[in-house]
Amino acid sequence: MTRTRRIFFTGVPGSRWSGIAQTLEQLPGFNTSDRTPARTYSHGGFSGHVGVYFGQGMEFEPYLDADHIDSAWSQPGGTRMVKSHDWCSRLPEVAQSFPYDRIMLVYRPDLASYAWWHQAGGFDIKYPRYDHYRDSTTIMAAISQQNQQILSYAHDRDAQWNYFTRDWIHQNFGVPVSVPQTYPDILVALIPCRP
Questions:
Q1: Domain containing 181: what range?
Q2: Which of 12, 77, 135, 189 sits CB 3.0–4.6 Å from 159 for a disulfide?
Q3: Does residue 44 form part of some domain?
Q4: Tens-of-pLDDT digits for all 195 residues of the chain?
Q5: CATH code, 160
Q6: How many CB atoms lie within 10 A of CB 55?
Q7: Residue 1 located in a structural domain
Q8: Going by C-beta distance under 8 Å and a sequence separation of 6 or more, which residues neighbour residue 141?
């Protein structure tokens, strides 16, 4: 299957979207040269966060500029997983700005996401930063709003939701790779930016 230069990847805090991104980045052709020790957070037995995350007040703000985005990777080529919670509110703009790339959405219900985010460290997560959410009430409201934006965009684009499985990866990326676990409350959708 033809690879795009970028996949704009989004999900709410606690949706387990980072683990999904890391599974896909194991596939041939993904560029992981954005990974550095400073861009790593682990918790318990989980891989946590690796690579660049675009967001408010972070190392890379969520600007929709190709040079700005691509500068986060130290090596050229390959598909870049461009991760940000902020894409939720800008999905039509992402699609218009990057018509030859793709968007990947991860959906998990609000309360399950909120609970897992707290279990993963909550405001003690060192990377990426979550301090702009201020408190638990604010992040719960943000999770709910971001999930609504994800669902609304998926509806407008007639996206097909699926479980994140080995078969789904094979169908969409042409390579079967093992998925550590499929969760019954997590759905994914991969959408070309250009309709």
A1: 6-192
A2: 189
A3: yes
A4: 557 999 999 999 999 999 999 999 999 999 999 999 989 877 765 567 889 999 988 899 999 999 999 999 999 999 999 999 999 999 999 999 999 999 999 999 999 999 999 888 878 888 788 888 889 999 999 999 999 999 999 999 999 999 999 999 999 999 988 888 889 999 999 999 987
A5: 3.40.50
A6: 19
A7: no
A8: none
Look at residues 135, 160, 128 and name the one whose alpha carbon lies nearest to residue 56.
128
155: burial class by Cβ within 10 Å (0-12, 13-18, 19+)? exposed
The tally of CA atoms less than 13 A away on the side-chain side of residue 68 is 10
Cβ–Cβ contacts within 10 Å for residue 178, how many? Answer: 8
